Amino acid sequence: METSMLCIKNGILIDRNSAHHLTCPYIYIKDGRIVHVGDKLNVDAIEIDIEQDYISSGWMDLHTHANPSVSIGLTPDQIGVKQGVTLVVDAGSCGSSNIDSFVASLPSYQTKVRMFLNISSVGLTRLDELADSSLIDLEANREKIRAYRDLIVGIKVRASKSVMGENMTQPFEEARKLADEYDLPIMVHIGNAPPVLDEVLPYLGKRDIVTHCFHGKPSKVVNGNDVLPVVRKARNRGVKFDIGHGGASFSQFTYTEAITAGLSFETISSDLHIGCINGPVYSLSKVMDKMVALNLPFDDVVDRVTHQVAKIIKLDHYGKVDVGYVADLTRFRLETKNEIGLDAEKTEIHTSVSFTPIAVWVDGKEVLISNE
Length: 372
Ligand SMILES: [Zn+2]
What we know:
Blueprint: E1 6-9, E2 12-13, E3 26-30, E4 33-38, E5 46-49, E6 54-57, E7 59-64, H1 76-79, E8 85-91, H2 99-105, E9 112-118, H3 138-147, E10 152-159, H4 161-164, H5 170-182, E11 186-190, H6 197-200, E12 209-211, E13 222-223, E14 226-227, H7 229-237, E15 240-242, H8 252-260, H9 284-293, H10 298-303, H11 307-312, E16 329-342, E17 348-362, E18 365-368
Parallel strand pairs: 1-5, 2-6, 7-8, 8-9, 9-10, 10-11, 11-12, 12-15
Antiparallel strand pairs: 1-3, 3-4, 6-16, 13-14, 16-17, 17-18
The structure holds zinc ion.
Residues 63, 65, 91, 246, 271 line the site of zinc ion.
């Protein structure tokens, strides 16, 4: 069926990679794709005037828990379109034994979903999913990766004592094998040692991702003014770093120390789950507010929830407002509002600017957001 052309106008574009960054281009959409960005065209189109709000590529959250069938899981829409996020990546809720039912549920949501397959077959149906080595079934993992090649964007390994018990090398070895076979990144969650970073990071290469990269636990990435040598080496190999705020995994002090010591990172993600959606995380946009408060320029913040995410998980034609790209967009305001947020160590971050999503378009279809 022919759909009519849509034209979004009068919005300030935030896209550092576009020549139209910070201008108000006419954005034309047809059949779910962006077909023109720039001057007004002489064509029939349904025009939507967004009245000087901001518009960016649809926000994407690289680390969430969006499978409601596991105990810590939320729903994709709750933390997706309802919060201005057009695509959520579930980070390991599913292993080979429980992925089928989650995939079957996805058409009931408006938010797009991708996932990191947990190296453990049980996913996060139990929170010590790697304690028993028999829970890693390489052949079952291969079968699911082949079946859901368009949805699985990587392999998840949670490297904490509480998750792994004594089983500290096998999960990495098996994940490395799978990742190399299918050219997928491994996302490693770092937390309480053991294993220490010296044991974990050597498994990772340039496609891989460290999440919770600025946690404040004893085995963190910096020691005073110095980035740990193993961390510096991993960054030099191209290993990607992701915030993964969560309930226990983002410390503003670690962040400030690390940035001051010259460490950088790629993506801002929420790690939203049932234990942090009512604070300290609430939403991806609240994490973005805190990053602005910690001196990251706001267009840089937007870049790290759009373009950078698409690059890391190789989402073709996502993350930019440009011709040929998927018409996933977020309309938002930057409201001046003094609020006090908390990091995961419960220390205050005073925010003065608030990203307020107004609407999203998913494949060119508008979803309004109620900000009651
Ligand atoms: Zn998580």
